Amino acid sequence: xxxAGYLIALPFIYFISLAPFWLLYLISDFFFVLVFYVxxxxxxxxxxxxxxxxxxxxxxxxxxxxxxxYRYFCDLLLETFKTLTISAENMAKHCYFEADSVKLINQxxxxxxxxxxxxxxxxxxxxxxxxxxxxxxxxxYVIYHPLTHSGFNQLMIDMRTRFGxxxxxxxxxxxxxxxxxxxxxxxxxxxxxxxxPETAHWTNFMHQDTPVFKxxxxxxxxxxxxxxxxxxNRVKRGYYxxxxxxxxxxxxxxxxxxxxxxxxxxxxxxxxxxxATWLWSHKRWKHSRK
Length: 290
Prior knowledge:
The protein is of the alpha/beta class and 290 residues long. It has helices at 2-18, 21-39, 43-53, 59-82, 88-94, 99-110, 125-135, 150-161, 173-179, 215-223, 258-273, and strands at residues 95-97, 115-119, 139-144, 166-169, 185-190, 201-205, 208-212, 227-236, 239-248. The chain has two domains: 2-82, no CATH class; 95-277, no CATH class.
């Protein structure tokens, strides 16, 4: 059954990937109506997350934010499919690093320092990896969760590695980072996934008790890699600018928990600036602090 669904979906995915941007966003507008008004995909999850995160907003404001999120969510999904066939020239045009950020990253490369990059599910994080590999000198490795379906998993691998990015399955993070110590690498961590509550660092995030993975902090301290928080800002529909918001040059010198608090605070600040572009459909607060 899963294989049949994959075979049915694959031609549509490639059609979206090959479509010009004007058509892609026309299809996205249709999907928005379908997903928001008809299917009502995770509407209760999204609106519940928004109400708890913005308790100062009225019901009308929450509903407006919810609509904005779903419009963006549909754009994001189709933009991700676009990665399968987009040219390097178009990729660089639609997603790019701010000039000073490229200069900073490439200076760390010149200083022969491997780095860790932290970001959240904010803006088009898939395109951000492509932009890094095209503009920066470090070999980028992205930590990821393999999908259970082998066909869709390979499709995501193909999209994420087209422009030189390499992947590391989350369970292999320490081993693979150790194996690549001889390279000048940038290791990318998505820091707003939901960890098991008993092993998490707990903090207040978006007005809520929130578990955060300790892995980024532990790897940064273990390997003594400068750690950069980056923000993927949507400039306008289909265009993104990526900026290094802050750098911790010696993470191994920080007290336990401080690096995690640092990147979580920066993510919250970015979400409050551009709330519609964060992944509100994610069940981020499904665990409670014991």
